[in-house]
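Hey, can you fold this one?
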Amino acid sequence: MMSENRKLAAILAADVVGYSRLAGADEDRTLARLRALRSDLIDPTIAVHKGRVVKRTGDGALVEFRSVVDAVRCAIEVQNGMVERNAGLPPERRIEFRIGIHLGDVVEESDGDLMGDGINIASRLYSLEVGLASKPKPATQAEPIVAVEPRATLALPDRPSIAVLPFANMSGDAEQDYFADGMVEDIITGLSRIKWLFVIARNSSFVYKGKSVDVKQAGRELGVRYVLEGSVRKASSRVRVTGQVVEAETGRHVWAERYDRTLDDIFALQDELTMSVVAAIEPSLRQAEIERVKRKRPENLDAYDLVLRAIPQVYPAMPDGAAKALPLLERALNIEPDYALAHGFAAWGHEILFARGGAHEENRLGAARHAQAAIANGRDDAIALSLGGFALGLVAHDRGAASQAFEAALALSPSCALTYIFGSVVMVFGGDADRGIEWAERALRLSPFDPMSYAPWFSIALGQFHRGDYEAAAAAARKVFQGNPYWSLAHVLLAATHTQLGRLDAAKSAAMRVLELEPGYTISGMCRVFDIHPSIAAPLCEALSAAGLPA
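Sure. Predicted structure:
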């Protein structure tokens, strides 16, 4: 009689949607594709996330993981890999997986097989809604069905750390959300300029927007000692802001305050709030350090509003959004001609249009002009300096000036994730793979949930490609795709890494997607626009050419 052992395990159960239909249409092709997927995608991904295949069930499998986090990450990576592999195929030929994950008791027999309710529940989760089921629903691609999905706990950094959560908009007017969000962003930027303070970036803090937040949980997930939360109530010409700083581990209130001001005093209010937070965390901080938190702001609130409205349009880094953002930024600059942040985002908008919108000379000149203005007028604004340096490095090909701008930004704001993000891209295009990867990893630590995480992953992928570690480059390229699937450069990286790993069908599919997103793309045009260093340009061009992209 076989012995058995009861234990807690995370079980992933998966099979192919409509397998009988696929096999009936072309069994040999379907089996060949499944074997290729197992060897190229599924088994390596399971191994990376420390999984163990318990059994295969024809078109499916049962896999054991040590944690639900590993199981979920594996499922998401497989599903996103399938999006890439199914690109260009008609729906009736696509292989799509449905995946269920359950954490529960299982019985392990002496031969390694698993049995029990934990297995049965994972298998039945296929037809349930994500989380708690309300009605049957087939799982769609890239949507693993999970029973539990905790975020990992991050270690505290070696200096005081804080996250500023989105302020609640108490105005009863959804249109004023941008106003509350803008206040929080300015507070984050001000705090980030304090050298001794580790500040979580705005985009990571904002994953909690609209949610009921447990401060202790947010502190663990973001890896910070303190959390600032608050609310904004705006009515007519007046605004009331309340804020409180809580020690995340204990829930102890460190500081709380309410501010009532007229709307024309909003920037003084932001400075006052920021200085109060700093004083609460470190009472012995010298007054000179507090004064450094202050930064220039546009005198007219309308210019500030326009920039806030433009920023979401440029974040995806594609021409359609940039074309919508630039008129807003030009209007802001008509009101405040020396507004450094508006110049910085205008420089990025022109860079996007030049790099992926036809390489028009007017956009190259516009990017350089606004970049220089951002640096000249933003000597106390780390984000403006970073945006200016990025545009100068990429399209003006002045990497020396770009480096100076990045270093100046970090001198002001050592916790500015955008500086590390933009700097890493300039570095890897310039052939400095090691430093580019280092800066990208630093950006990901400063802003672990950043919607712009596709950019540092791009730097890591290109840097690893430069080093010749194509497996690492491919893994990072998948992260780029997951972060921004409509960014043409994500598919450029996928095409190159697939080629180097001998996956020519996948490489050609990625190349087709590049041309769908950027019809005018050419390999030589990309190298010319970014002035890619010869040491990386040579192998990259060779791989892209083999994938079928036009020279």
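The two ends are 67 Å apart (CA to CA). Let me know if you want another pass with a different chain boundary.
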